[in-house]
Amino acid sequence: MSRSNWILVVSLTIAIISFPPQWHPYKIKVMMNEWVGVPEYRALPASVVPPSLTAETFCPEDLRLWRKNLIIDDVEVRAEKTCVADNPYLVAAAVKGTNNVSLGTLHASGFTSDAIIKGDDLDGDGDPDEIHIRLEVVELNGGSNIVTSPSTQYSIAPGIFPSLWVFAPKLSGMAVENFESQKARRELRLPAPAIRVEQGDRVIITLENTHYMPHTLHLHGADHQFLDSSGEGNDGVPITSEKPVLPGFSRSYELTPRQSGTMFYHCHVQTHVHAMMGLQGLFIIEANRPNNWVQTLNLGAGLVRAPSVASKEKYDQEYDIHYQDLDSDLVRRVRDSNDPRLITKSMHRDYDITDASADYFLLNGRSFPYTFRESLVIGEEGHRVKLRVVNGGMKAIALHTHGHKFTITHRDGVAIPQVQRRPQDVVALATSQRVDVAIEMSNDGLHAYGPGIWPFHDHQYQGITTDGIGPGGNISAIVYEQYLGVDGWPKTNGVAFDRYFSAAFYRKEIPVWETYGSNLFSDTGIDWILFVRIMVSLVCFLLSLVLLFSKLGQWLTQK
Amino acid sequence: MYLLWYFNIFIKFFITPVFIGLLAFGNVFAQGQHMNHQGMTMKVTDAGFVMNQNLHILPVGCSEVSTDIELRVRAGRKFAVEPGQVFAMDKPVVSVPGCSRLTIVFQNTDSIRHQWMVHGLPKYLYQGGMFHIETHANQTVEGTFILPPEDKSYLIHCDMAQHMEKGMRGMLVVGEGSGRIWSIPGETAYFYRASYLPRYIGLGIGLGLVLLCSLSCTYLVLNRFRSKKLLRKID
């Protein structure tokens, strides 16, 4: 036999022997068992020690003492017991109007002097009835031709920076925290502020389009005329009532709502894109009462720190709850380039919402675990709590409360007759639907089962994840005060939150149960022996193939 | 942002240590009609505000104000003439001599807010190292500040979200300046720039290359066969 024949035989033999026995077909395995017996034990790869976590601070210290009960410019601003509280000066300015507060309060609020103008008391009942609100449009986590990191950064969960558009109150100064920072100032956030007016108020909302795309404002469900007093379109719909507001321009929308209720507002330009980018907020019309100074803007929704007279009559606390979802394929597009022409093409023509899937699920602009910092519903036994809930996402939600059966009092802003009200623990909310929810924290076995930390969340299972990683999404909790630490962090019974406050967890790099049983639930190591066997087998097989074909060629040419 | 970082390094290691003693002479920010907001002087009117206005205090190295310059800068949609630009200043580049007292008359022709903001000024004189004018819709606000003597290029921008990125970016050149700043529409190259090539050009080039390769391979193979046949005929 020639040398090349020897090589052929040897390489073919090595290829066959080194082929991993774990992949032998069943019959071969049985045959090998009969010939040579059962192979030796080979240990499975050892567990990998997970990367050490760099967790964010769960509960930042309240250095400015914003969580306390305060009286600012004669406005009682209630305590907010969560870790992160709304700026109380902003609340006071939203109650009095930026034209009626002291200069110190105005500056501490961050508003411009014309952000919320409150005028005359038209019905003589002790509160202003002429309200002029100014809103701007802000892009968070936007694109740039200077840096690759997002501009005006806002994270919805650790390490997650989706590009967003939002209606923002008119704030003076910079969009970022300070001139060395890329982080958005804390007032620039999702969702758009919940707007609160009183039934019968003469309301003007001026949209100042500070963004580089056209926008409008549509008052969904709120009583408004098709045309305003000057005959201009007032419905905010660029296919029926008006042209959109172009960059650098502004337009005022007018309404004098005759009915109270929880309504909605959103941009109506290319709504399937603009509303899904975040241009949506709650619009609440409070029942008319004497001396009813309502908190005109509730930034980031959540606890109403200066509730209306009507709310105080029946409830101990009131919360604005805004659910949203985001498609990761949409919220990356503004950063693909810095040219508005390319961006508008990418978002309005290349993006196809009929192929979309929601990836991020927000409660008041954040996902779990950030919801635990600022969107807990907190009360005591015996409290009655009102939630005004809107689902602004493209997907329906199935809102569920642990430990409580709530009662729907209003649907789409209209009261449900008393006889039709009943306790329930799941309510389905279609896109843009609103419900007013009453939670009785009375331990009677029906309405509530007693004190604790009771989660509330969307029971459709995507909603409790952040891009498929759970726990995430819109999970929050109803927390009884005895279960709340002094700093506002719930006493979670020994459960560590380090993983959830690590960006790596939501990048899918951390085993979900590692802390409960290291080794048992860790990631596995790599079987390098198997890899070497495959490589040897493959190389020998290829070599023998080459030799075989050259033999074949020789044989053919000789013939 | 690396420019800001560069400015910071410059200020931290060269300027600040030398002039830190200056602070001992008193509060350089105390100016009569101005109010103090978060440690910064503010001149507030209905038309907007000026932050860190400085009419009289000379930066270190200036014995006197070299020149008084008044400049009207207009800002708005209508000055955005470059392709892809949305908001703009009519004078993105402002050149002044060192130690000059610069008054910016900042006119906003839009129905929204705009800002004219300089970064990287000496922090001993300008809190946060900035001078900032904000002008409300269709208003004009003027603000004055005195520049240090050093040749330096400062970034000018509007710090409303996306306004700098979409066109309101410029530079203030003092003396000879210290180089040009990236991404100023109509002036300097964009640091990042989209390709603007036909949509499927990459695919086209790729397919073309594959086609070329396969054709040449076929040619070579055929040629080889032909030559072998020839050789055999000769035999």
Describe this structure in a few short sentences.
The complex is a heterodimer of chains A (559) and B (235). Helix content of chain A is 18%, strand content 23%.
Report on the structure:
The complex is a heterodimer of chains A (559) and B (235). By secondary structure, chain A is of the alpha+beta class. Chain A contains 10 helices and 25 strands. Helices cover 18% and strands 23% of the residues of chain A. In chain A, the strands form 5 sheets. In chain A, strands 13, 14, 15, 17, 19, 20, 21 and 23 form an 8-stranded mixed beta sheet that branches. In chain A, strands 3, 4, 5, 7 and 9 form a 5-stranded mixed beta sheet that branches. In chain A, a hairpin with a 2-residue loop joins strand 1 and strand 2. Chain A is elongated, with a radius of gyration of 30 Å. The two termini of chain A are 20 Å apart. The mean pLDDT of chain A is 94. With 235 residues, chain B is an alpha+beta fold. Chain B has an 8-stranded mixed beta sheet, with no helix packed on it. Chain B has a 4-stranded mixed beta sheet with strand order 5-4-7-10, with no helix packed on it. In chain B, strand 2 (40-45) and strand 3 form a beta hairpin. The model of chain B is unreliable at 12-39 (pLDDT under 50). Chains A and B meet through strand 4 and helix 7 of A and loops of B.
Poorly predicted sequence stretches spanning 5 or more consecutive residues of chain B = 12-39
Count of extended strands of chain A: 25
Helix content of chain A: 10-25%
Oligomer: heterodimer
- The rough form of chain A would be described as elongated
Keywords:
heterodimer, A: alpha+beta, 10 helices, 18% helix, B: 235 residues, four-stranded mixed sheet, 2 helices, 12 strands
Question: Secondary-structure blueprint of this entry?
Answer:
The complex is a heterodimer of chains A (559) and B (235).
Chain A (H helix, E strand, L loop, with lengths): L2 H16 L7 H11 L33 E3 L2 E3 L10 H9 L6 H7 L6 E3 L11 E11 L23 E6 L24 E5 L3 E7 L9 E3 L29 E6 L5 E6 L4 H4 L5 E7 L10 E2 L3 E2 L5 H6 L2 E10 L13 H11 L9 E4 L7 H4 L2 E3 L4 E8 L5 E5 L4 E6 L2 E2 L7 E2 L1 E4 L4 E7 L12 E6 L17 E5 L22 H4 L21 H31 L1
Helix pairs in contact in A: 1-10, 3-4
Chain B lengths: L1 H18 L15 E3 L2 E6 L2 E4 L16 E9 L11 E2 L3 E4 L4 E8 L5 E5 L12 E5 L4 E7 L5 E6 L11 E6 L26 H34 L1
Parallel strand pairs in B: 4-7, 6-12
Antiparallel strand pairs in B: 1-2, 2-3, 3-9, 4-5, 7-10, 8-9, 8-11, 11-12
